[in-house]
Design brief:
Blueprint: E1 5-9, H1 22-32, E2 37-41, H2 51-54, E3 62-65, E4 68-71, H3 73-84, H4 92-122, H5 129-151, H6 164-173, H7 186-196, H8 199-210, H9 220-230
Parallel strand pairs: 1-2
Antiparallel strand pairs: 1-3, 3-4
Helix pairs in contact: 1-3, 1-6, 1-8, 4-5, 4-6, 6-7
Length: about 230
């Protein structure tokens, strides 16, 4: 049996290191004990062939295993969990709840976080960004509070069992770890700390960071200059 191949960037700005979504796939593979290979892409090449054949939106990661090629981290992590028989409980109801939390992380909790990234970074200089920021931040606080209430004093979302739902939810929550959004919710902060203390996460993170051996594209210097002018 061959090793699956994932795609990842060979360079990203410092603020994105440890956050690019291939980390979620690496974490899942580490949790199930599946070795994998990485095809590294330089910035810009993800928008062209042959990567467009793997990922129609020109993003990373992708996952290739034999005749199967997948994109979208949720689909990839779910496939890994199903194929290896771990990260999803055997009980049908508990399994359904774990998958539910995967969708919740990606479809309910993460969207306002991405809005925050656009308002404070990628589109920070646009006239609409600053006025939108208070409402974006409130939505993040609301979502984090709702997750915190449901988690309560449990170790994981499915009580004592770490699932793909936790993997995806922790991956999303930790995006805002350094921005103070976890501080009002000690149980969420502890939850994220438990997840990122798992050996599989540590291995995945180390491997992602070790892969950043490339160089920035020529246009990055100009983008950085613009960011300084709008800061």
């Amino acid at each position: 049996m061959g090793r699956p191949i994932i795609t990842a960037f060979d360079w990203v700005p410092d603020f994105a290191r440890g956050q690019v979504r291939d980390l979620r796939v690496r974490w899942a593979l580490e949790e199930v004990g599946q070795p994998y290979d990485v095809l590294y892409l330089s910035q810009g090449s993800q928008k062209a062939e042959p990567h467009r054949a793997r990922q129609p939106f020109g993003q990373v990661p992708t996952y290739e295993d034999g005749d199967l090629t997948l994109f979208e981290t949720g689909a990839i992590v779910l496939h890994i969990a199903e194929r290896h028989g771990t990260l999803l409980p055997r009980d049908p109801a508990a399994r359904a709840r774990a998958i539910e939390w995967m969708f919740a992380a990606l479809n309910t909790v993460e969207p306002p976080i991405m809005d925050h990234a656009f308002a404070t970074l990628f589109e920070a200089g646009e006239p609409w960004s600053k006025p939108r920021l208070p409402s974006i931040e409130q939505r993040i606080h609301d979502r984090f509070g709702e997750v915190a209430r449901r988690l309560g004093d449990r170790e994981w979302l499915e009580d004592a069992t770490f699932t793909a739902g936790d993997l995806m939810m922790i991956s999303v929550l930790r995006i805002m770890e350094e921005d103070g959004f976890l501080a009002p919710h000690p149980n969420l902060a502890a939850y994220v700390a438990r997840g990122t203390a798992r050996p599989a996460f540590a291995r995945a993170l180390a491997d992602q960071l070790a892969g950043f051996t490339g160089s920035p594209p020529p246009e990055f210097a100009e983008w950085l200059k613009q960011q300084g002018e709008t800061a």
